[in-house]
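Reading a protein record of the kind used here takes only a little practice. Think of the row as the fold of the chain written in a discrete alphabet. A record is reproduced here so that you can trace the correspondence yourselves:
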Amino acid sequence: MTERLTAADGLVVVDKPQGISSHDVVARVRRLAATRKVGHAGTLDPMATGVLVLGVGRATRLLTYLVGVDKEYLATIRLGVATTTDDADGEALTTLGAAEVADADIATAVRALTGPISQVPSAVSAIKVDGKRAYARVRAGEKIDLPPRPVTIHAFDIDVARRTVVVDGAPGAGTQVVDVDVRVVCSSGTYVRALARDVGAALGVGGHLTRLRRTRVGSIAHAVTLDQLAEATEEHGQMPVLAMAEAAATMFPVRRLDAAEATELGHGRFIGAHDEPADQPVAAVHDGRLVALVERRRSELRPVIVLVPAGA
């Protein structure tokens, strides 16, 4: 058996399977990476699958900037049954059925939820209410009314035409429902479950989510399974990661530094700006290493995070 070494600093992009939590994925990666310094950017519910970005070592400092990027999902909305959790893990609240709902009405309801909207998050969410997670309060029997928050739905497309089915099993067993496959591109903080709920409410039949897969976080789309990650770790004796400079280049504009500029940023000092954008972080890279994340202020680039101190 190959000796296990601590993973290098970098990102790991996991294709999260259904039925486990994001925390479960972090725990597995911590064992494979032989370090506890692992975090993730953006939680996925246990029922959801797809892209989960994790940082290892110093790369955990990049995750704050990943949490706020746009995300893309493929999902299935079930019309005709509303649930306590806005997804298939909850209990049925109403079972009105949706066989009579017209395709044109579904398209209208979807269009109405595209663009900047005010969304009430799902009650069973990780949002804290007086220091306690909303889902914990709901499970304890409390009624939670969360305030709406602004989000942006950049794209809300019906990918596959409706399928009329009779529910086999909970929630809503025996109800004639309509399943619609959709693609959603949205800002951080959007609840796709709440979109399913609100489409159903607009149609007067109720709705919930039966499938959710995240296909992209920012520009990061390629992911590996936990089994593939374990096999690669066993083969190489160290868990493979996306190096920090390469990872940053997938997320941010890149400024190539000369040695003097790298030293200045390594000391926490400013350097002159070129044509870098002023509305997002910039990856400052020298000799294949991510020296810092910087932001533009007028004619200067100021370090937000220094990752390679001068002399290191």
Summary: Helices lie at 22-33, 63-67, 103-112, 134-139, 192-203, 226-236, 244-251, 259-266. The first strand starts at residue 10 and ends at 16.
